[in-house]
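Handout, page 2. Input:
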Amino acid sequence: MSNQQYALVTGATSGIGLELAKLFANEKYNLVIVSRNQDELERTASELHQQYGVEVVAIAKDLFKREAPFELYDEVSRRGIVVNVLVNDAGQGQYGEFIETDINRELDIIQLNIGAYVALTKCFLKEMVVRNEGKILNVSSIGGEMPGPLQSVYHATKAFVTSFTEAVREEVKDTNVTLTLLLPGVTDTDFFRKADQENAKMVKEGSLADPAKVAKDGYEALMAGKDKIISGLMNKAMVASSHMMPDTMVASNMHKMMEPVDESKKE
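Output:
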């Protein structure tokens, strides 16, 4: 592997994004890592460089902001970096009933989970198609395969990511550029704290996946040029069964799994 190859990873300071960055670094990809927090970003960049000996470029961008993906692309271009692999990982959710949750936060989440994915994919995909080389990994979720009461906006954004990726993949199928979807289930990351969802039954009582294992599944699928990988046997079974049930039943079952563990059952 040439040490001139670069992988750009958003949400790279924790969770699945960090584990993916480690996998690329281990294979001697140079890195462009992106997150909002400059201090965390610089600390992560230093650790990755020291451990793996690759170049790590840290760029702090708030992808909640519409202009941020374009600023990121311009910064990468200004530095003369050719991105061989793009990993869209950064994402957040908000827990609660839709009539009670904060609409401004939800609009930010839509920008982060959808807008940033679309903008970065468009910017870097154009270059990849011209070169006839490149890989994109879009981190979606099994949540995108089913409605998510108490996480309605998050699930809907991931449904978009899945549909969008599948459509663009078809458009570039005659090139050497590949787009891969990674669909994790409930994973042991900081996501649930940020979403105020730590007390949900599926988080509190469920079995949380190891982000390193999820990242490995995604990395291997990406490198093999696969279309999609659902990480974990239980998640594969859950998605398969949801496709055989009416949407109303799937929503009802998911609602029960999402409820707070200490909430008394409503009659």
